[in-house]
Amino acid sequence: MDFLRGISDWKQTRVEKVRADMESLGRCPDCRGRGFTSSFSSVYLPTYDAIFDCPGCNGSGLYEDWSGNNT
Questions:
Q1: pTM higher than the cut 0.85
Q2: Helix residue ranges per DSSP H, the chain
Q3: Phi and psi of 10, rounded to 5°?
Q4: What pLDDT sits at residue 68?
């Protein structure tokens, strides 16, 4: 169980670091400031299947919009 806890702690630390980095840059952590998310149709031949506005920041790419939606 310590192994799984270690992985969970590592993942949480990584998420917090990305959030802090994106906050300092003023970008949405979900889309990394792009304003959109995409899905891939295949792992072997990656092609964009669909592109959507980021649900975290409503497509703006800004940290302020993301933090207002996720608090």
A1: no
A2: 2-25, 63-69
A3: -60, -45
A4: 85
